[in-house]
Write the structure tokens for this entry.
Amino acid sequence: MNTQRSFSGFFIAGAIALILAAIAGFYWFFAKSPVNLIASTSQPQAAIFVSQLAPVTVSLLVNPDRLQSLAGTGELSKLKTSLLANSGIDYQQDIQPWLGNEISLAITSLDIDRDPENGKQPGYLIALATDKPEKSLEFVELLFSRRVLAGATLGTEAYEGTKVIYDSSQPEFHTLAGTVVDNFVLFANDPKVLRDAINNVQAPDLNLISSPQYQKAIQQLPKSSLAAVFLNLPTVAEWQGLNLSAPIYDSQIIAFTLNPKGVLAETSFLTSGEIMLNPLLSQPVDALKYIPASAGLVIAGADLSNLGNSDLAKLWTQAKTATSGSGTDIISRLVQPLAEVQKSWGINLAQDIFSWVKGEYAIALIPRDGQTKTDWIFVTEKLTNVPEAIANLDAIASSQGLSTNTLNLDKQTVSAWTELTTITQKTDAKSQPSFTLNANVKGVHTTIGNYEIFTSDLATIYEILSSKDNSVLKNRDFQNSISAIPQPNQGYVYLNWPASQNLVEQQIPILKLIEVVGKPFFDHLRSLTFSNYGNDPGTLKGGVFFQFHHP
């Protein structure tokens, strides 16, 4: 069992690393020499071997040699070498002559033998398109002959007119089964997985291609996709041993495409129910002109009042449960400084702040060099209800023992919520004591034009007042990122990767492991931008735009 799990993890890590390396490598070449690079196939053909109940299918829709020619001989060559280490197989001689334009990996079932008594062992299938079936069959036989020479015990069987080759499970070997069916070479971690794959071809109502859910998802796949991931969300949650109390979305498809400024990972969540989307924005959020270019994290959009009841919020709830079971979603983790304000002030962000934000808003975190503390900014459009909301915040501050003070800063009137403390000093027992009054600023706000601006301290609001010509809206990286997001949209979440990497790693510890697997990707990463857009019935569509350092 342990060796099979190791085998499975080995191929999953390899597939993820290949896609991540492809993203970084493709862009690296693309920025130097723009070309119209189109994937060789419009959708994964290997889905015909995969069950409708399979939780995950990952597909690379272009020949790896095209990646090699574009990205150079570095990371992809290392990946090929590591995947074939100790196999006695030479890629150029044994695989390259027949390999076609698709490599797909699927978790086919949650338990191969469906026997809970002996534990759960997922089934894994890898399908490689072949341009020369006879040549690829020679490769399969060569691979198993090398394993026999290394000490494995070989077995063969004829199943539905197809020759299946496998080696018996031994402690020192990963179980492996292989065959060639039509124009695909198939490998699996158990012969039963291959038999099921063959059955799925011969009984079309069983395979993924015949699934209405999958067909609806595939329609969202751009023709220029280089890679695609399909997730059966309830089954993914079951695979992780998690319980979705109220699953909203049935499936998800992710497609990776290129543009001259970076890579867009476009994702669609699909459901048979209705989706209530927030209003779409056709123009950049003007509140961003008060966010400094030094921001590590920026969140911008319109109307926070219904965020908790929107389908976007339900999506976050399902996504966090299906992937980690965590009680805190990713956005809540990233804006942890605001959560700390909520705790120290004794307020409810949703009720006391978000409920009255019906216009534009922008939230930003500002990392400070050499400091663990992260400053924050919150900007909202000043509609008619805002003065009353600020008066309510003043009352909450007063109830927490804070004072509201007005002062002049760079010719701008600002209000500060402060905690006043006194320090008593006496030179001797007979002298009168002297007192020093200290003001610890807990928050600051001011009005500029049609916007109310809140910050964590005086230094942050001074940065806004003194650097109006250095806002994030005038930052080239930010402009490149939001211009790549389709319009209209529901706003965006922007991460300046060099500035926010430490913050994100602190809040999402598993990211450090992902960075190891996708090192070429993260080494060149400049920024990430998330957004939601589209109004198709039953579909919540969005994307993540990756911008890389220009070569």
Notes: The longest strand covers residues 434-448.
